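Worked example 2:
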Amino acid sequence: MSETVPALVAELEAMEDAKLRAVNERHGDDHGVNLTALRGVAKRLKTDPELARELWATDVTAARLLALLISRPRQYSADDIDAMLREARAPKVRDWLTNYIAKKSPHLEELRVRWLADADPHVAAAGWALTGHRVQKDPDGLDLPGLLDTIEAEMKDAPAPLQWEMNATLAYIGIAHPAHRDRALDIGERLEVLKDYPTPPNCTSPYAPIWITEMVSRRG
């Protein structure tokens, strides 16, 4: 291993920007490292499973983000990924772990089922993120009407991170599966989840009826 963990942590600390940290901390992320610059460090390091595990063990948010970028998804067992999700404190770490590791893992389905049933809303949210991924990429075997039943019953009062991922799954069902589109639109319209979410110009609203309609229109 050519680069040591202490040296890399020191490098990340030197990259900290106080203003960026203040912005990130409003979202629960305790770091001030520019993510483009972080990706530059990862590109230099290349894939390095051993170094990734050591960086993760530091419990430093920026180091954990770097660890995920240089990981190989197949290096982790289902129990490894589950433990990492439960250890993750920062939303960005949970997000990258779900998207860069769990979604590319051979254990995706095992984790999806395990996490969906979890009482921790952050863990359950990751389960819904994997479900949304399957709705789009690999829907065979999914009970789409059953997912819509659950969303209809639980999304309105779900904690924020869980509600966000359930809403995304609702939108993905409506976009990718025409047979269920009318019901997805109806659920979104009745529950009104994220209807008033502030959306920047030139961005699509996360409100499911708008999101579904916009994406379907783009497909022609």
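Residues 107-220 form one domain. The mean pLDDT is 96.
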